[in-house]
Amino acid sequence: MSTEIFKYEKPFKLESGKELAELEIGFNTYGTLNKNRDNVVWVCHALTANSDVFDWWKGFFGENDYFNPKEHFIVCANILGSPYGTSNPLSINPVTGHPYYLAFPQFTIRDIVKGHQLLADHLGIKEIGILLGGSLGGQQASEWAIMEPERIKNLILIATNARHSPWGIAFNESQRLAISTDRTFYANAPDGGKKGLKAARSIALLSYRNYKTYGITQQEEKDNHVDGYKAASYQNYQGEKLVNRFNAYSYWYLSKTMDSHNVGRNRHGVEKALSLIKARTLVIGIKSDVLFPIEEQQYLFQHIPKSVFAELDSFYGHDGFLIETGVLTNIITSFFKTDVKGKIIELQRTA
């Protein structure tokens, strides 16, 4: 499925007051809008993902999965700052004729959502039947449900929060420190900061998984190793894998964007902001999540009016929302069968 490009050829004003001269957004769609125009499923993707949700959320989105193009009109748009078709630090600055690099203006989760609202208007979408996302995607989804409560009918928030925590910000800052130690990051070259990005990804992985995950998946089978450990090889492999598909400048900006997440900003506090959500909401937390502890999802559940809560028991930690697609399917199936406010859906991993 090829990515389409939406071009907004007017100045795009950011929350900071700064502007982009124009905005491009890469997006993918699957299926068709039905006659009642009420079968839209809009996916907000996470930090380094892209708009091809059928590629990175297999088992949950696909021809024969719960979210499929036969029943739904599925939209996933690449986020501002990301290098997969949307305006980002490697885009050409019309003022200089060269890529922005570190001259790209800082932006927030709300700016990402504002861009996607323009895309929804362009696609003729007045009602989003289901809006969902995990992690940074969940941050976007919660913002959108607050910014346009009438447009969003059902909301699914997975492994996310109402405002980014000091713990999460500290992880992100540690990754940026790693990037900034690579002097090539300041060389204004497309591959600048590659070694720093590799180290940053290694740091991030520790928050995406946990002690038990590594103990199960990276444990040595023999006792005679003094070097060349599986866990070390895994960190190197995953770091190199990201370097081959991403860039340090987008990663730098998007980590700061995640830090900016606070639904209470200029809205008289977090609880007041969450009370504005009118969508019927499912909040899913992962018991073993180190980066977004389950208390953060319980907080969302407690303060979003029409919400239910489900706990996912997975040893994969934060990444469980990308892996445990069968359990997610069961939880969401149960969600659409209940109308009870305050219900806790008790489904646990069986495999």
From TrEMBL:
Cell compartments where the protein resides: Cytoplasm
Any one of the GO CC terms: cytoplasm
EC number: 2.3.1.31
Gene Ontology molecular functions: homoserine O-acetyltransferase activity
Domain AB hydrolase-1, first and last residues per copy: 40-322
Domain of life: Bacteria
Catalytic activity as recorded in UniProt: L-homoserine + acetyl-CoA = O-acetyl-L-homoserine + CoA
Enzyme class: transferase
Family matches, as InterPro entries: AB_hydrolase_1, AB_hydrolase_fold, HAT_MetX-like
Predominant location: cytoplasm
Claim: Secreted is one of the keywords in the record: no
Pathway given in the UniProt record: Amino-acid biosynthesis; L-methionine biosynthesis via de novo pathway; O-acetyl-L-homoserine from L-homoserine: step 1/1
GO biological process: homoserine metabolic process; methionine biosynthetic process
Protein family membership: Belongs to the AB hydrolase superfamily. MetX family.
Protein name: Homoserine O-acetyltransferase
Originating species: Mucilaginibacter frigoritolerans
Originating gene: metXA
